[in-house]
Amino acid sequence: MSLKTTGLVDSGSSHCFIDPTYACDHNIPLISIPRVTLCFLNGSFGEDIVQVATLLIRFSTNNVIDLLFYITPLDSDSVFIFGHNWLHRYNPLIDWTAGQLLFF
To answer: Where exactly are the structural domains of the chain?
Structure first.
């Protein structure tokens, strides 16, 4: 299956996340995990995370990467969040003005 959507790069987010509605609507297989408590930067807590999805993501650069996403409701127009763990591992070159990945 191939889907096209946008994601948000968030260096303040510790990990990668996907919205559960998007995952459900597109029949993305979910894997149960031990409960993880979601903690926000302001010290408040979100819903506990109990599922993940592993997806092959093709970026606009044509790089294809197998990524683990925690399943949690997202508060943005993007259905994916690419967090610090992804930024640290792949160190992509980002054109912040154009909002585009240039290469890994």
So the answer is: 10-103
**What span, in angstroms and rounded, lies between the C-alpha atoms of 63 and 45?**
34
**Are residues 2 and 72 in contact, defined by beta-carbon separation less than 8 angstroms?**
no
The beta strand positions in the chain, using DSSP E, are 7-9, 17-18, 31-36, 49-58, 64-71, 80-82, 93-95, 100-103
Coil vs helix vs strand at 89: helix
pLDDT in tens, 33-63: 999 998 877 778 888 999 999 999 988 888 8
Phi, psi torsion values for 26, nearest 5 degrees: -110, 15
Cβ neighbours around 4 below 10 Å, total:
5
Q: Which CATH superfamily is domain 10-103 in?
A: Acid Proteases (2.40.70.10)
Q: CA 2 to CA 13: how far, in whole Å?
A: 26
* Dist. CA 82–CA 75, nearest whole Å: 14
State which residues of the chain have pLDDT below 70: none
